[in-house]
């Protein structure tokens, strides 16, 4: 059963029937808005990039997984590869997190999306991020990326340790500007 999240909403990631999640996948999907022209509409390519930013309890950046570093230093977080167009169905980019292997010093993981080529969100549609239990392929939570506009980045969601040994997900949906995750760090700090 999928939980459809609204901005600011938080959901526990405990498994139904008990137990805790071991491996989750954050999927990002989008489509480029078709451009209308004199000779009909045509597709365009939009290069959105998903990143996972790992923070400790004090809010310091410990590691980052993005198109230029596909694996975290401890090997627990893996980016499946860069999609340059948004073409195709389903997740266009994914970040897989092995929660059991994650360094105990990591308190939260913030997922961001940005347009490396600088195109703004008014040029995309059907954009979403979702969290999937990788062991069962069950979608746990989905957040529709709203707010199409002149921004070219968004701080999507975060997964945090909840204190009882489990995890929770919070939909953030904050608009930002920047072509890489480094550009988004000041805006991300407000959501830690």
Walk me through this protein's architecture:
By secondary structure, the chain is mainly beta. It is built from one helix and 14 strands, in the order ββββββββββββββα. The longest helix is centred in the last third of the chain and has 9 residues, at 181-189. Helix content is 5%, strand content 45%. The model has no long low-confidence stretch (mean pLDDT 81). It is globular. The strands form three sheets. The protein has a six-stranded mixed β-sheet, with no helix packed on it. β4 (35-37) and β5 form a beta hairpin. The relative contact order is 0.26.
**How far is the first residue's CA from the last residue's CA?**
28 Å
Q: Approximately how much helix is present in the residues?
A: under 10%
Which runs of at least 5 residues are low in confidence (pLDDT < 50)? none
Q: Please outline the major beta sheet.
A: 6 strands, mixed
The class by helix and strand makeup works out as mainly beta
Secondary-structure element order, as H and E? EEEEEEEEEEEEEEH
Mean pLDDT: 81
- In DSSP terms, counting alpha (H) and pi (I) runs of 4 or more, how many helices? 1
| CA gyration radius, whole angstroms | 16 Å
- Largest sheet: spatial strand order: 1-12-11-3-9-8
Note the beta-strand portion.
over 45%
- DSSP strand tally: 14
Key attributes of the depicted protein:
mainly beta, TerD, 1 helix, TerD family protein, Stress/Tellurium_Resist
């Amino acid at each position: 059963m999928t939980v459809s999240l609204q901005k600011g909403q938080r959901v526990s990631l405990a498994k139904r029937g008990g137990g805790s999640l071991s491996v989750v996948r954050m999927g990002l999907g989008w489509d480029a808005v078709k451009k209308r022209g004199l000779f009909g509409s045509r597709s365009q390519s939009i290069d959105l990039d998903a990143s996972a930013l790992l923070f400790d309890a004090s809010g310091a950046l410990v590691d980052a997984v993005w198109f230029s570093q596909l694996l975290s230093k401890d090997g627990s977080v893996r980016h499946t590869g860069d999609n340059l167009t948004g073409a195709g169905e389903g997740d266009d980019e994914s970040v897989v997190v092995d929660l059991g292997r994650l360094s105990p010093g990591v308190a939260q993981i913030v997922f961001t999306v940005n347009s490396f080529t600088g195109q703004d969100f008014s040029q995309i549609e059907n954009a979403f991020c979702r969290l999937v239990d990788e062991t069962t392929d069950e979608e746990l939570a989905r957040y529709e990326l709203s707010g199409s506009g002149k921004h070219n980045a968004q701080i999507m969601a975060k997964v945090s340790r909840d204190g009882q040994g489990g995890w929770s997900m919070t939909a953030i949906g904050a608009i930002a500007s920047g072509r890489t995750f480094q550009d988004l760090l000041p805006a991300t700090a407000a959501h830690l």
